[in-house]
Design a protein that fits this description.
The protein is mainly alpha-helical and 172 residues long. It is built from six helices and two strands; from the N terminus they run H-H-E-H-E-H-H-H.
């Protein structure tokens, strides 16, 4: 995820997120946590016009965070959302440790639970894919309707009332 997306999710400004990362850069050492996106990777257009309005253009290359980087970021930031995310991550680790240590390891049970979980995830992804496909079809229909309205709008030009003396035009 990009730094500006995470900043919006954590409810802070992007510059504050970047400051926190730069102040704690040792925590993000290596590409498995975070990397800075290069200008080539941004694949900017060849048009050299700037977006209008404040903050519409990327001035500095954004950071891209991996799953590990997002988890580490939640421990670096000092917003309520970041603190809550960090707490939930720690609780998840503790729950996994209890699950592994207290539960007797039975290959048959683990395999059946894994198969059940895999089936459930496939069902969830299928439903999500269906929703995405439905949304894509609805967007296509909206785009077609907008295109038709645009064509009709260009075809229909109301006659303007001319001001002043109108002389008849003759074909020669």
């Amino acid at each position: 995820m990009f730094d500006f997306d995470l900043a919006a999710r954590y409810g802070i400004e992007t510059r504050i997120l970047k400051q926190a990362v730069r102040r704690n850069i040792k925590r993000f050492d290596g590409d498995d946590f975070m990397f800075e996106v290069t200008a080539d990777e941004l694949s900017r257009s060849q048009i050299v016009t700037l977006n209008k309005g404040r903050g519409g253009n990327i001035k500095y290359a954004p950071f891209a965070f991996t799953e590990l980087g997002v988890a580490m970021l939640s421990s670096v930031l000092n917003s309520e959302t970041a603190i809550e995310v960090n707490r939930n991550i720690m609780r998840a680790f503790v729950a996994m440790r209890h699950f592994v240590s207290e539960r007797p390891v039975d290959d048959v049970v683990l395999k059946s639970e894994f198969i059940e979980l895999k089936s459930y995830m496939e069902d969830v992804l299928t439903v999500q894919n269906d929703i995405n496909e439905d949304t894509r079809m609805q967007l296509d229909l909206i785009n077609e309707a907008l295109a038709e309205l645009q064509v009709k709008g260009k075809a229909f030009k109301p006659l303007k009332n001319q001001i002043g003396f109108n002389s008849p035009q003759y074909d020669m």
